[in-house]
Amino acid sequence: MTTLLSTPATRVNPRMSIHQRTFNAISAIMAERGPTESAMNDIFEFLLHYRCLLINNTLIQHDGVRVFGGPFAGMILPDPVNRLQAPLLLGCYEGELHDIVQAIPNAGYQRLINIGCGEGYYAVGIKRLAPQIEVWAHDIDPEAQRKCQQAAALNGVDIHVGGVFDPQHFALHAGHRTLVWCDIEGAEAVLLDPVLYPALAHMDILVEMHPTDGGHTRDSLPARFADTHDIDIRHPGGHAFEMPDWLRDGSQLNQLLARLEWRGCATPWAMMRARAA
């Protein structure tokens, strides 16, 4: 999806206000394509994006850069201004996983391998929640690695941050009670293979499943672990969440947009618990 931050007007003048960027982007679409159905759909997405950015920045203005509620309440997010991070700031992000997160401190885990850690929301959040767990966070994006390290420093936690995860390294964690947390946009079809990497048979695995050129991994991945794991499929839902007073007392539209996670397709999670852990 095209975003306001990638419009030609933004590239020309990155200091331009969000309001002016939005106006310029919409004007450019109308001038180039006219009031066609596809143009109107793009304009609608621009306006949604614009409204979500305003809600994000209003959250920061009122409540700062700490997560407001949810299992990671109090965690500091690095550089969230002018970004679509309202669900993270509110703490309602991926509410279908909250009970799993809340159970981690008492689950007996010794290690967390967070593959596709992004900016460290889960790697740092879980380390804050369960300091006894040693955390390895991996992402192929150098900027995400930098932000993850920044988030760890801001929150006073110590985690291992690295780049591409070598699946041969699953074996290095064998013998430890390990949770693999995986969100890698479809590459889970290659990475999570218990035949190639048998250490996975003894690890708990939480994985977000995505469409790929070979089909959706929700239709193939759980079957690989059916003989060794108890599998719980989680879908996004309309979960209740904590709101600051100004948002709760405001418009319902703002409340709906504040939790919008901008998913373009179905990406359910599989919580796979090893029977022989």
Characteristics:
alpha/beta; disordered N terminus; 277 residues
Largest sheet: 7 strands, mixed
Widest beta sheet: strand line-up: 3-2-1-4-5-7-6
H and E string: HHHHHEHEHEEHEHEHHE
Oligomer: single chain
Report the mean per-residue pLDDT as an integer: 91
Compute the number of strand runs: 7
- Cα distance spanning the termini: 41 Å
Indicate the overall shape. globular
From the helix content, strand content and strand pairing, which structural class follows? alpha/beta
- Assess the beta-strand content as a share of residues: 5-15%
Description of the structure:
There is one protein chain. With 277 residues, the chain is of the alpha/beta class. The chain is 36% helix and 13% strand. It has eleven helices and seven strands. It has helices at 8-12, 18-33, 37-63, 86-90, 98-103, 121-129, 142-154, 188-191, 221-224, 245-248, 252-258, and strands at residues 111-115, 134-138, 160-162, 178-182, 204-208, 229-234, 269-274. The chain has a seven-stranded mixed beta sheet, with helices on one face. Helix 6 links the parallel strand 1 and strand 2 (134-138). The N and C termini lie far apart (41 Å). The model is unreliable at 1-12 (pLDDT under 50).
